[in-house]
Amino acid sequence: MRKWQTALGMVVVALLVIGGFAVRLRTTSPTVRLDLSQHNGTLDLGNSRADLEITPRPPQPLQAFALRLRPASQVELRDLRVAFTMRMDMGPNNYTFEADTDGSYVARGIVLPKCGSGNLDWFGTLTGVADKLPVETRFALTLTKPAP
Ligand SMILES: [Cu+2]
């Protein structure tokens, strides 16, 4: 084999490896450690933590659900919002949390659209101000396909 053919072969292999990594990074973002698809979980909110609960379960496309945030310790929370996105641009899906009487915060009436591609994998980005410091944290949420 000629030298340039070997070099070309190596470039193709390198591109395939890089491409594979890029796809993995896109589908399994390393910043997302919390997955709320099957069960509730706890996330870091600056210097404190909070439980996140989804009701009712399982979350499905076009079916309203609520996302409740329960701080694990005393913390001053403001401007809590959650934005849902997926790989495809599905338009804005933004919700605001309200303080509830029991000390938790709740975003009610969340309705996520049904993606025409059949993709059910969403990401939630929760933002707010915790003890005067801006916080941002992400979680994964794979919706459950409705029964036919
Ligand atoms: Cu879509």
Largest pleated sheet: 5 strands, mixed
Task: Please mark out the parts with pLDDT under 50 across 5 or more consecutive residues, or reply none.
Answer: none
CATH architecture grouping of the largest domain? Sandwich
Write down the overall geometry. extended
Question: What's the helix-strand series?
Answer: HEEEEEEEEEE
Q: Got a strand count?
A: 10
Number of domains as seen in the coordinates: 2
Instruction: Describe the strand arrangement of the main beta sheet, using strand numbers.
Output: 1-10-9-5-6
What is the count of helical runs? Answer: 1
Strand content: 35-45%
Give the ligands present. copper (II) ion
Q: What structural class is derived from the secondary structure elements?
A: alpha+beta
CA(first)-CA(last) distance: 56 Å
Query: What would CATH call the class of the largest domain?
Result: Mainly Beta
**Gyration radius over CA:** 20 Å
Mean pLDDT: 89
- Fold-level CATH name of the largest domain: Immunoglobulin-like
Helicity range:
10-25%
TL;DR of this structure?
The chain has one helix and ten strands, in the order αββββββββββ.
General description of the model:
The protein is α+β, with helices and mostly antiparallel strands. It has two domains: 1-30; 32-142, Immunoglobulin-like (Sandwich). The protein has one helix and ten strands; from the N terminus they run αββββββββββ. The chain has one helix at residues 3-27; strands spanning 34-35, 41-45, 48-55, 65-71, 77-85, 94-96, 98-99, 105-110, 121-130, 133-142. The strands form two sheets. A five-stranded mixed β-sheet has the order 1-10-9-5-6, with no helix packed on it. A five-stranded antiparallel β-sheet has the order 2-3-4-8-7, with no helix packed on it. β9 and β10 form a beta hairpin. The protein is extended. Copper (II) ion binds at residues 88, 90, 115-117, 119.
